[in-house]
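Quick one:
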Amino acid sequence: MSWRFGMIVTTTVALLFMLAACQPVRDTRTTSAGSEKTLYVGPELADCVGVGPQQCLLVKENPDDEYQYFYSSIAGFEYEPGYTYELRVLVEPVENAPADASSLQYTLIEVVSQEPAMATATEATATEATATEATATEAAMLEGPTWLLTSVTDANGVESPVPDGVEATATFADGSVSGGAGCNNYNAAYTLDGDSLTIVPGPMTLMACPEPQMNVEQQFMAALSATAAYQIADRELALLGADGQGLATFTVQESVGLTGVTWVATSYNNGRGGVVSIVADTEITAIFDAAGEVGGSAGCNRYFSSYTVEDAMIAIQPAASTRKLCPEPIMEQEYAYLAALPTAATFAIQGDQLELRTADGALVAAYLAGGE
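Output:
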C-alpha cells in the first residue's frame, strides 16, 4: 500500500512541474500595473514652468501632432540635442508619490530611431521640416515662462529701463498674451509666423495709478500694438517693430514653487458663475506642504484639507474648518471659497501668481505669493 501511495505522490509532483513548464513566459516590459507607449521627442529642450522653472523635452504621441511640454523624465534615456527620437517606453504608476511629483514613471524600453533634425529625403523637405521644428521650438520658448519687462521704448524711440517698483509682465499661451501692464491687467491676442509676431490688444482693467506706473503702462501697450517680430536669446525676449527697432525687452521671471509659500487669494469663484474680489479687511490664504496637506485662513476660520498633484493637474479634498462666527459677508465669502476649492482640476504658476481652475477652464481662485 505504501508503494502505491509513493507512486501517486511522485506522479502528482511530475504533473505539477509539467503544467508549470507549459505556462507562457510573462513579458516583464508590460504588466497589469503599467503599459507601453510610443513617444516622439523633438530636437531641442524648451524653457517651461511646472511647480518651478525648468527645461522640458518636447514630446508628442503621434507624428502629425504638435509637440507638447514633457515635465517628467524617462529613466534610461540619454537625450542629445539636435536629434529627433522615436521611443518605446514603459509607463508605470508610482505608489505614494510626493505631492509635488508625478504619479507616473517612464522607463525606456527601446530607442526605435534617432535621426539628425536635418536628415530628410530631399533638400526641400529638409528645409521645410527644419522650419517646422524651429517654429515649434521657438513658440515653446516664447510660451514657456512669464516675461518680466526690463525696458520699453517711449514715443521718441528711446528705450529706457523700467523704474524700480513698477512691474509689467507678459505670458504667452495658446494665442493669448496677458499679464500686468504696470498698473492694470490686460489681455491680447497674438499670432506667430516664424519669427514674426503680431499682437492685438484686447480688454484691460481701468484702474488709475500714480506715475511712473501709468507712463510705463502707456509705453508698454503701445509697444505691444507695434510689435512685428521677436527674438529670444540668453533667456531674454525682445519685441521688434516693422523696421527691426527694439520696442521692449524682457527677462524670464523666476517662478516660486507651489509648496512652502503662503498664497494670498486675490479673487475666487462665488459659485454663482462669477469671480469676485476678497472682502475688504479680510485675508484668504492657502499653504501647500510637500506631504500633501493644504490649509490656511478662509477669511474667518482656519481650514484644513489634503491635495495631490500630477504635472499641472491638482485634486483638493473637501476641507474641514474651525467653527468661529464672523459677520455675514465674511461667512458667505468663506462658504463660497471652501466650496470652490474641491472643484479645482488644474493649477498654473506664473512668476508670483497662482491660479486654480476647473477641468473646463473656469477660475476657482487666484493668489499672489505672500511669503515663505
